[in-house]
From TrEMBL:
Main localization, broad class: periplasm
Signal peptide: 1-28
PROSITE patterns: PROKAR_LIPOPROTEIN (PS51257)
Keyword annotations from UniProtKB, A to Z: Periplasm, Signal
Location in or out of the cell: Periplasm
Keyword Iron-sulfur set for record: no
Stored InterPro entries: DctP_fam, TRAP_DctP_sf
Name of the protein described by the UniProt record: TRAP transporter substrate-binding protein
Length: 334
């Protein structure tokens, strides 16, 4: 089996850290460093911990995953696709909404207002995963698990309760869909990696952020933005994918164990969504966040109006792959 050794030089953090095989008596332990752009307590962070625990359990300790949350390896979220492709890390959490510049197909789950509940998310992923797996193979990776962030809303310094409140608002978007929609609705939107959000808030470069209640409260964004407006923009899907060379070096029994761990992680993460939003809101209110669940209908209706052509534009860009969206819509009677 090919071995991958971690580089510990502090000057090379984030570069060429692969999987290392360590002798432990008669057995060998494979150690995988896994970056995540988000925090340990975020939805993706929780899912990564579950995945690592299940991998250790199902491989009888032969594979151990070392987490690197909050971009601590030096990679931004958008960097993860190439980092795994090139073998800089053996696996990573991929926020697919960052990858529209590579392939618009990655943006399916962040198309606005497609999903409303956990059953929608499950149906979308079931329709999506086979073709998504083929797309990941084009980047020298094997898809093993999926995760999600709860519905995206608006965190803001001042309450956003109507369309008028959105006009000229300096707001962080997280992909091209949200950028174009919020810009079209009158905001001064800017597309920004998560790692750049806190510095931008501290300097006043932005006054609002499009993200989930979950990520916001678990990252402390409420220290800057004490208001949250529910709009149920999207439930973006993320995935865990492993470098294909690393994968091919594993014996079949370990591949099977990792796939089982990934599938169980997906199921647990999706099921958690049913109670996650309510729990987030309770935590937010305990920290004095003003949670606006019923903004003026003009806000959402304008966002839906502006977003509709973006979905058709996505269809035109992905061509025949748009059949996946049609299959999902038919399955959910939408």
């Amino acid at each position: 089996m090919q071995a991958f050794f971690r580089i510990r030089d502090a000057l090379m953090v984030g570069a060429a850290i692969g999987a290392c095989t360590l002798a432990t008596g008669a057995a060998a332990e494979i150690v995988w460093d896994m970056p995540n752009a988000f925090g340990r307590n975020s939805s993706d962070g929780v899912a990564d911990v579950v995945f690592a625990e299940l991998v250790a359990e199902k491989t009888n300790g032969e594979i151990r995953i070392v987490h690197h949350f909050d971009g601590s390896l030096g990679y931004k979220g958008v960097d993860h696709l190439e980092a795994v492709q090139d073998g800089g890390v053996p696996l990573a959490r991929h926020a697919l909404s960052y990858y529209g510049g590579y392939d618009p197909y990655f943006l399916l789950s962040s198309q606005p207002f497609l999903v409303e509940n956990v059953d929608d998310v499950r149906a979308l992923y079931d329709a999506y995963k086979d073709e998504l797996g083929k797309t990941m193979e084009g980047y020298n990776q094997v898809l093993v698990s999926a995760g999600l962030f709860p519905p995206s809303g608006i965190w803001s310094r001042e309450p956003v309760e109507s369309l008028a409140d959105l006009q000229g608002l300096k707001i962080r978007a997280f992909d091209l869909n949200s950028l174009n929609t919020f810009t079209g609705a009158g905001a001064a939107a800017v597309n920004m990696n998560w790692g750049d959000v806190m510095p931008a808030l501290s300097t006043g470069a932005i006054d609002a952020v499009v993200t989930s209640a979950d990520l916001g409260i678990n990252s402390g964004i409420n220290d800057y933005l004490p208001n949250f407006t529910e709009i149920n923009w999207a439930v973006p899907i993320s995935v865990i994918a492993i470098n294909k060379d690393v994968w091919d070096a594993l014996p079949e029994n370990l591949q099977k164990a990792v796939l089982e761990a990934g599938a169980e992680t997906t199921d647990r993460t999706f099921a958690r969504l049913a109670t996650q939003v309510e729990g987030n809101y309770e935590a937010m209110k305990a920290k004095k966040v003003n949670v606006i669940t019923s903004p003026n209908p003009d806000l959402r209706s304008k966002l839906v109006e502006v977003a509709a052509p973006l979905i058709e534009d996505w269809r035109s860009k992905v061509g025949d792959k748009a059949a996946v969206l049609d299959a999902y819509l038919a399955a959910r009677g939408k």
